[in-house]
Amino acid sequence: MTEAERPDAPSTTDRDFQAVRDAKYVLLTTFKRDGTGVGTPVWAVPVETDRGTGIRIWTARNTGKVKRIRNGSRVTVAPCSMRGVPTGAAVEAHAVLLDDDDTRGTLEALAARYGMAGRLVTRRARRDVADSAGIEVNAA
C-alpha cells in the first residue's frame, strides 16, 4: 500500500498546499472580474490561525492583486521559481486582506524567514504599515 492509499494519508490538496507552505517562492494567482488569472511570484510565511492552516503574504496596498482580492477572494497558489515558473501543483484557495496589526506581524515573519534580504525588503514597510497590505491565503 502506497502512502497515498493509506486511509489516514493527507489528500492531494493537503500535500500540494503543504508544498506551497514549504516553498521559498509562491505563485499567487488572483482573478480579474472577467475570470482572467494574473500570477505574481511572492514570498510567503506559513501560519496557523483561526482561519486554519495557511500562508501570509505582504505587498503594497495599491497593487492590482489587492484590488482583485477586494473584488473576489478566489486565488490559486503554487510553489514556483523566483521568476514565477510553477514547480508544483496549483491549489485553489481563498484570500483575505489583513488588518494593520496582522500585516505588521506578517512583515516581521517575512523578515525572519528570508534573512538579510527579507529585512531589507520589508524595512520601510515595518516602520509604517499604512502603504502595506497583508494577505492570508487558506486552501479552499
TrEMBL record:
Cite the GO molecular-function annotations of the record: coenzyme F420 binding; oxidoreductase activity, acting on the CH-CH group of donors
Keyword tags: Oxidoreductase
Report domain Pyridoxamine 5'-phosphate oxidase N-terminal positions. Answer: 19-138
Instruction: List GO terms (cellular component aspect).
Output: cytosol
Lineage, top-rank taxon, reads Bacteria
Instruction: Extract the signal peptide range.
Output: none
The UniProt entry, under Pfam families, shows: PNPOx_N
The protein, known as: PPOX class F420-dependent oxidoreductase
Species of the source: Agromyces rhizosphaerae
